[in-house]
Amino acid sequence: MAKHHKTGAAELGAPMDYAEHEKTYSGFLSVAKWGTVAVIAILAAMAFGFFAGGPFSAVILFILICVAAWFLL
């Protein structure tokens, strides 16, 4: 029987770098969270700017939503 070596493909039993996996997953969750916040803020600001008038007020609302999300999340 052949000796089992700890190198090679993961399917063959190579050790996994769990710290790097966790770091990558944490980064993915962070990007997904802030991307969702940005999309919601943009949509809310666009609706506010359309119905309440003026692009300046929409930009202010967008900034306020992003700052509020920063402190709440």
Automatic annotation (TrEMBL):
Signal peptide: none annotated. Keywords: Membrane, Transmembrane, Transmembrane helix. InterPro entries: Cyt-C_aa3_sf (IPR036596), Cyt_c_oxidase_su4_bac-aa3 (IPR012422). Gene3D superfamilies: Bacterial aa3 type cytochrome c oxidase subunit IV. Residues 5-50 form the Cytochrome c oxidase subunit IV bacterial aa3 type domain. It comes from the Bacteria. The chain crosses the membrane at residues 31-50, 56-72. It holds the Pfam family COX4_pro_2. This is Aa3 type cytochrome c oxidase subunit IV.
